[in-house]
Amino acid sequence: MTATLLPATALSVRGLHLALGGRELFADLDLDLPAGRWTCLLGPSGAGKTSLLRLIAGLVPGRPALVEGAAYMAQQDLLLPWLGVLDNLVLGYRLRNQPPPFDAARALLARMGLTEAAHLRPAELSGGMRQRAALARTLLEDRPVVLMDEPFSAVDAVTRLKLQTLAAEMLAGRTVLLVTHDPLEALRLGHRIHVLAGRPARLSEPLIPPGPPPRDAADPRVLALQAELLRRLEAA
């Protein structure tokens, strides 16, 4: 397996292999993440989407990261229970002995609708609030490569659209790999969309939505592609 970090933070992976629990997830898998673009990954549960994210981030035991310094947002919020929301947001900076960007963190919490929750601990938050806090922490890291696993799954439909728009704005020009089970979400945000399926898993040819993200969910072109994407998922 080889991974090449190209100029402007593109990532090209060739010949990726991974077996977990005696089951081969990937064999000679190739993946390209174009620089400054969102790549979205869908597929049936158990196909290996989360494992692929973790592998790229260096979170699979015994395997090195395929890209250094990426921001990673897991399905679980992973907020430290003894810290308030604001302190959870700036934790990475403190661990790196960098000055915490409190002003930027507070401004981001305001955009997330979490100003009043800044000093609350995770146990005092709803699931959707915790996910918004985790997303804010990921965005605050300001990294060139961002890996996100179902980052909008715990919020209501209207909030989800707003957060998608915010993420598209703040991550413009970044290299993003987004795992989602929501075809419309992928079509709103992705420059390239793949379906991962099979044993071992393979990537479909990319589906390329028209225009820049975030796209209008009611755009007839987006809705037509949603039908095609659903067909691909059903075939998988």
Describe the fold and architecture:
This protein has 8 helices and 9 strands. It is α/β, with parallel strands linked by helices and 236 residues long. The strands form 2 sheets. The protein has a 6-stranded mixed β-sheet, sandwiched between helices. Helix 4 (102-111) packs across helix 5 and helix 7 crosses helix 8 (220-235). It is globular, with a radius of gyration of 18 Å.
| Gross morphology | globular
Number of strands: 9
Summarize the helix and strand pattern as letters: EEEEHEHHHHEHEHEEH
Q: Main beta sheet: strand number and arrangement?
A: 6 strands, mixed
| Helix and strand composition category | alpha/beta
Poorly predicted regions are: 2-7
Q: Estimate the helix proportion, in percent.
A: 25-40%
Distance linking N and C termini = 25 Å
Mean pLDDT: 92
Tell me what portion of residues adopts beta-strand conformation.
15-25%
Radius of gyration from the CA trace?
18 Å
Largest sheet: spatial strand order: 5-6-7-4-8-9
Distinct helical segment count? 8
Fold topology:
Elements: E1 2-6, E2 10-20, E3 23-33, E4 38-42, H1 49-57, E5 71-73, H2 85-89, H3 91-95, H4 102-111, H5 127-140, E6 145-149, H6 157-170, E7 175-179, H7 183-189, E8 192-197, E9 202-203, H8 220-235
Helix pairs in contact: 4-5, 7-8
Descriptive labels:
236 residues, alpha/beta, six-stranded mixed sheet, three-stranded antiparallel sheet, 8 helices, 34% helix, disordered N terminus
Q: Would you kindly provide a brief summary of this structure?
A:
The protein has helices at residues 49-57, 85-89, 91-95, 102-111, 127-140, 157-170, 183-189, 220-235; strands spanning 2-6, 10-20, 23-33, 38-42, 71-73, 145-149, 175-179, 192-197, 202-203. The protein has 236 residues and is α/β, with parallel strands linked by helices. The strands form two sheets. Strands 5-6-7-4-8-9 form a six-stranded mixed β-sheet, with helices on both faces. Strands 1-2-3 form a three-stranded antiparallel β-sheet, with no helix packed on it.
